[in-house]
Structure formats: structure tokens, C-alpha cells
Amino acid sequence: MARPEDVIKRGKLVELRYTLRDASGKYLDGSGTDTETYVHGEGAVVRGLQRALEGRRAGDSVAVALREDEAYGRKRKSAGPQPIPRGTFPDDAELRVGMKFSAETPDGRPVDLYIARVESRDVYVDTNHPYAGMALHYEIEIVAVRDPA
User: Fold this and answer.
1) In the 8-state DSSP scheme, what is residue 70?
2) 10 touches 41 (CB < 8 A)
3) How confident is the model at residue 97 (pLDDT cuts 50, 70, 90)?
């Protein structure tokens, strides 16, 4: 039987497997047989998913459908994905679609960018997350819930 301290709440380390699909059922992302780990309540998962997992326990499986405003929000106007030379990133950087990083505009203002596509010579970035403007469907298997080490 799960103990009360094994419930997902702010500050707990959550280990899970997931599959992410769009509203039509097209596969977008997933952990496969590997697990993903995050600290709940620290902004590592989208707001709607965080709310859906709150109070769940290890061993639970849950299907979560999120509107765009509960996931990555609406698309904002942008110039579209822009190329940055691959050499700008560290050689050992594991670059993935959707990865967020911060940069500065030419006038020195901070801006969050998301990787939209990775090619051998260029990494395409956008101010919109690749899943912005989309309703998302998660299938989650919660593997473990514990205090961070």
C-alpha cells in the first residue's frame, strides 16, 4: 500500500513514463521504456499536466487531455524558426526539439527560445514552443514518487 508521503505534491521527485500525442492521435514524443524524472511544482512540466498529476501515486496510470492554454499556450507572432549554426552550441550538447534556452536580442533583452528542428549544420529556434497552439494528449505511467536526494 502506498504511503501518504508517496503522493505527488510540490517538491516530490516524480519518475514516470509517458506518451504524448496531438488531438488527432499523432505521436509527438515519449519516454519509451525509459523513465523521465522531474521535481513536481518546479515548472518542469506544463501547468495542466502538473494539476492532473497532483495527488497521484506510484503505480497510477492516467490519460490527460490538455487544451492549448493548459499546455504550451497559443502561438505568438514570430518570424518562424530561425537557423543558428550548430557550432554555437557545445559539441556535447544533446539538443532536442522543444528544448528551451535563453538568449539575448541584439539590443540586450533576454528572450526564451525553443528548438524547433536540429540539422547537421544548423539548429532552428523559435520563440514559440513547437507544441504551442496545440491540444495535447498524455498517457502517463507513474513509476515512483519520493523525496529528492
Assistant:
1) G
2) yes
3) confident
